[in-house]
Amino acid sequence: MTARVISVGHLDEEQVRSVLRAAMAAPSPHNSQPWRFHCTTATIELHADTRRAVPAADREHRELVLSCGAALLNLRLAIRAIGVHPAVQLLPDPHRPGLLAIIRPQGHTVVRPDDRELAAAILRRRTDHGPFHPTVAPASVVAGLRLAARTEQAWLPTLTAAHLPILRVLVAEARGAQSHDPAVVAELSRWRDHGADQAYPSVSGSDIAGDSLVVVIGTFLDLPLARLQAGQAMQRVLLAATAAGLSASFLSEVVEVPATRGQLRDRIVGGLWPQAVLRLGYSSPGPASPRRDLDDVVTSGPTRV
Prior knowledge:
With 305 residues, the protein is α+β, with helices and mostly antiparallel strands. The protein is 39% helix and 16% strand. The chain has helices spanning 13-23, 62-82, 113-121, 139-151, 164-179, 182-193, 224-243, 253-256, 258-267, 294-297, and strands spanning 35-39, 44-48, 84-90, 99-108, 213-219, 247-250, 273-281, 298-300. It has a 5-stranded mixed beta sheet. A 3-stranded antiparallel beta sheet has the order 5-7-6, sandwiched between helices. Helix 2 (62-82) packs across helix 3 (113-121).
């Protein structure tokens, strides 16, 4: 069955379906896809779907908000690639914290080459579960990734060789803490039983080689707005990496466990709040993770959900 999608602003029905599918291609913990969209004749609302949360590993819904931010970035890029301007209002209603953004596709805009390039990378982006080739990313590519993060009000510290032994220890500590937490173990088992792929794959400390490019998406604040911006920054970095031929894996546990996240902040990233840790490199891309149907995530009508 096809979701009942209506035209929104300057987007016709088929364009709305296209941009929503692009939004839904964002990464999320255990491929949980914790977002909902509601379409009116003028707006697309992005809501957090807490029914799809992973509360044992993500107790504050921080990664849930990051995932929704990634979906929002995809949505913005897909709308711009059509030549329509996406006016965005973040956290528009303090009485409805689950309403994360309102997007108004209004007016026309010139499609810049970088918009087109990043939009084209949305469906090519993969989370890579395997090892990377030893080739090191050029400095110009790393500079482009830093610029991508800054564009979305976040920072991208790059870990040096001196940082990697510390990171290996923190990753091992985080993995140990989660493996001894029955709630986390049960949660992972439930998602696996549902056939979900893990979009934030585990990488052991020994897999963080000396020639790995490891970067952190960091923010000065750790409030919902900063997390929503960090999710958009994370996705812009991932898409820029994809466009440059790089694959990515997530070192998720180290920012999910409060103790190791705090040590990462204090010992490596200079007081920035680490929102995501990415390991980047060259590899052969694997298959895309399955996505939910539009029916499952989209509603439409004159009133908001």
